[in-house]
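Please decode residue identities from the backbone states below.
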């Protein structure tokens, strides 16, 4: 009690199937908002309404949080195991999701044997095994080198295109938000006010060739101008 107010009167609607990036300066409440949506923490006031009331939700954190004593396959299958899905059913699903992120050759490796990029892809595959309707990502690529991050962004965008899930993606990166999302939300430094709610005017199909497109540069400039005000 008596601590700073993170959000005061934020009002935000997200349509099913959108890919929304959430930007803002450090400490503005981006991660807190994501955790409230995931029901990991409860708001002091107001309401978070989802339709259906409890959609299948998966959360990808900045740290992959893999269990070091479990193989890649076992880590990926863990959510299904916790749901009581038997071994004969959960392993084929886990293998399929690992194939989607290009990790078919790593099934028997342990996390310590993987690069940072591989660990993050395992984390993404683990999130997808439950076929979530809502995917929440909290700066998952922040610690990766630029080329690796670029390629994972393309991969994530393709997964979204094929599955039609709702994606909320927290990031500090203006280029990442503009490249990935169909809509960008910029939060104010204090109070959680929405400073900008902008549709990103770029083609639906995104590839690394788009990074040199002037249209991407214009979208980045619009986001930068609002964030620079803080």
């Amino acid at each position: 009690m008596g601590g700073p107010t993170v959000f005061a009167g934020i009002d935000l609607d997200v349509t099913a199937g959108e890919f929304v990036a959430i930007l803002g300066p450090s400490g503005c409440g981006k991660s807190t908002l994501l955790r409230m949506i995931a029901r990991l923490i409860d708001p002091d006031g107001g309401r978070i309404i989802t339709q259906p009331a409890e959609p299948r939700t998966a959360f990808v954190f900045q740290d992959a949080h893999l269990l070091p004593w479990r193989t890649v396959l076992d880590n990926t299958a863990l959510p299904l195991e916790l749901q009581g899905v038997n071994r004969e059913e959960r392993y084929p699903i886990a293998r399929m999701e690992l194939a989607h992120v290009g990790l078919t050759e790593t099934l028997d490796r342990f996390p310590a044997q993987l690069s940072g990029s591989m660990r993050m892809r395992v984390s993404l595959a683990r999130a997808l095994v439950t076929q979530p309707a809502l995917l929440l990502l909290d700066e998952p690529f922040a610690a990766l080198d630029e080329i690796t991050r670029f390629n994972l962004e393309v991969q994530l965008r393709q997964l979204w295109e094929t599955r039609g899930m709702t994606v909320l993606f927290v990031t500090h990166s203006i280029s990442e938000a503009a490249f990935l999302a169909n809509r960008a939300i910029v939060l104010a430094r204090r109070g959680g006010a929405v400073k900008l709610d902008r549709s990103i005017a770029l083609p639906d199909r995104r590839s690394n060739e788009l990074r040199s497109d002037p249209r991407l540069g214009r979208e980045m400039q619009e986001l930068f101008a609002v964030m620079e005000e803080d």
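Observation: The first strand starts at residue 19 and ends at 23.
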